[in-house]
Design a protein that fits this description.
By secondary structure, the chain is mainly beta. It has two domains: 134 residues, S-adenosyl-L-methionine-dependent methyltransferases, CATH 2.20.130; 195 residues. It has one helix and 23 strands. Strands 3, 4, 6, 7, 9, 10 and 11 form a seven-stranded antiparallel beta sheet that branches. A five-stranded antiparallel beta sheet has the order 1-23-22-15-20, with no helix packed on it. The relative contact order is 0.23.
Length: 359
C-alpha cells in the first residue's frame, strides 16, 4: 500500500515537473489621459462596421506577398483629423489564428475614385495628389487572436502605429485611399490564414506578387477589411504593453509608452487585481484629484523609471527557473507623473495580466 502511494505521488510530481504551461499576456482595464502626444480615439470604418460584424478574410495581411488597395468614402470622414495608426478587428466568429509577423508597408492618400470607377491599375487610383508613406517597410507583429472574440465593435486585435501621421482634410469628391504592400511573413511568405473582419460598405482590390501593378486577384470587390483609423491626440492615455510572455527561467520586458516626455514613471507589479491589502481594486483616484484614473493592480513591487523624450520606458524582469511559479499571474500598471494632467498630477495606464508558463 505504501509503495503504491509513493509511486502515485512520484507520478504526480513528475507530471507537475514536466507540465507544459503556455505563457500569455493580455491588457485589461483602461487608463486615464495625460498630456503626451499619442494615439487617441479610434474611428471604425466603413461606417456600417461601427454597428455590425462582418466575416473573416485573410487578404492582404495573412496572404502571400501581394499589393492591396481599399477606399473609404469621404462622406464617412466629414471632419478633419490627423490619422496616426491603423487598427484591425478580429472576426466575431469562426476560426482563430496564432500570431505571426508580417513584412509590410502602408501608404495613404486621396482619390476621386470609388466603387465601379476604381481602376484595376493601382497607379490610376492615385489621382488626387501624391501618396504618403505612413509606415515605411517594417516587420509588424500580429498577436494571437482571442478565443473569446471581440465583444465590442471597437475591440481591435492589433494596432499598427504610423511613424508618419496623415492629415485627412475632407473635400467634395475626395476619398481616402489606403495602399498596402505585403512583402512576406514569418510563415515563409505563404498564405497564413490570419482572418480579419471584412465587411461591405467599402471597396478593395488586390494582386500578386508584392510588385504587382495591376490587380489580378479578381474584379474590384464590394467589401474590405474593417479599419480602425486612430486619431493623433495631445491628451494620450499612457499605454502598457509587451511583445513577450512571462516564462520561467527567462526575461520578461514590460513597456510603457505615450507618457509625458521625460516624465517619471512608477511601474507597479503585484499578484492581485482585486485586492491591495484591505483595499478593493480597482481603486478610484477621483477623490484625490485624478478623475477617471484607477489603481488596477496591487503595487507590491514598484520601480521608478524615467521616460525618454518620446515618452517611452521599459523594464526587464528576470523570472526564476522555478516550477512553482507556473500558472501564477503577474499584474502590472504604469503611473506617470504628469503635473498638467489633473489636480493630482498623475496619468495612469491600462493594466497587464501576465500568466507565467514554460512555453
Amino acid at each position: 500500500m505504501h509503495s503504491s502511494r509513493f509511486l502515485l505521488c512520484s507520478l504526480l510530481l513528475a507530471g507537475l515537473v514536466h507540465a507544459q504551461v503556455t505563457a500569455s499576456w493580455a491588457p485589461f482595464g483602461v487608463g486615464c489621459p495625460g498630456t503626451a502626444t499619442g494615439l487617441g480615439a479610434t474611428q471604425v470604418l466603413p461606417a456600417v462596421a461601427s454597428h455590425s460584424w462582418g466575416s473573416g478574410n485573410a487578404i492582404p495581411f495573412g496572404w502571400s506577398p501581394n499589393r492591396y488597395q481599399q477606399v473609404i468614402t469621404g462622406s464617412e470622414l466629414p471632419t478633419p483629423f490627423t490619422i496616426a495608426a491603423l487598427a484591425l478587428r478580429q472576426p466575431h466568429t469562426g476560426a482563430t489564428a496564432p500570431g505571426f509577423t508580417v513584412d509590410l508597408e502602408i501608404r495613404v492618400g486621396y482619390t476621386t475614385r470609388q466603387g465601379a470607377s476604381l481602376s484595376t491599375t493601382f497607379a490610376a487610383n492615385q489621382d488626387a495628389g501624391p501618396m504618403v508613406t505612413v509606415l515605411p517597410r517594417a516587420q509588424v507583429a500580429f498577436p494571437d487572436q482571442s478565443p473569446s472574440y471581440p465583444q465590442a465593435y471597437t475591440d481591435m486585435v492589433v494596432t499598427i502605429p504610423w511613424p508618419v501621421a496623415f492629415g485627412w482634410v475632407p473635400q467634395p469628391g475626395r476619398h481616402l485611399l489606403v495602399d498596402i504592400t505585403v512583402f512576406g511573413n514569418s510563415a515563409g511568405g505563404g498564405i497564413y490564414g490570419y482572418p480579419l473582419d471584412n465587411i461591405s460598405g467599402t471597396w478593395s482590390l488586390w494582386g500578386t506578387p508584392a510588385t504587382a501593378t495591376v490587380a489580378n486577384g479578381g474584379a474590384v470587390r464590394a467589401f474590405g477589411f474593417v479599419m480602425g483609423l486612430v486619431a493623433q491626440t495631445n491628451t494620450a492615455v499612457p499605454s502598457l504593453h509587451t511583445d513577450q510572455t512571462p516564462m520561467i527561467g527567462d526575461q520578461f520586458r514590460v513597456r510603457a509608452s505615450q507618457c509625458a516626455p521625460r516624465a517619471w514613471v512608477a511601474l507597479a507589479m503585484g499578484l492581485s487585481r482585486t485586492q491591495a491589502g484591505a483595499v478593493a481594486l480597482p481603486f478610484p483616484l477621483a477623490g484625490l484629484g485624478a478623475p477617471g484614473c484607477d489603481v488596477l493592480v496591487d503595487p507590491a513591487d514598484v520601480l521608478f523609471l524615467a521616460a525618454n523624450s518620446a515618452g517611452t520606458t521599459n523594464h526587464q524582469y528576470d523570472i526564476p527557473n522555478d516550477i512553482y511559479l507556473l500558472r501564477m499571474h503577474l499584474y502590472s500598471q504604469a503611473f506617470v507623473v504628469d503635473p498638467a494632467a489633473n489636480a493630482l498630477g498623475l496619468a495612469v495606464s491600462n493594466g497587464g495580466d501576465g500568466y507565467v508558463g514554460n512555453q
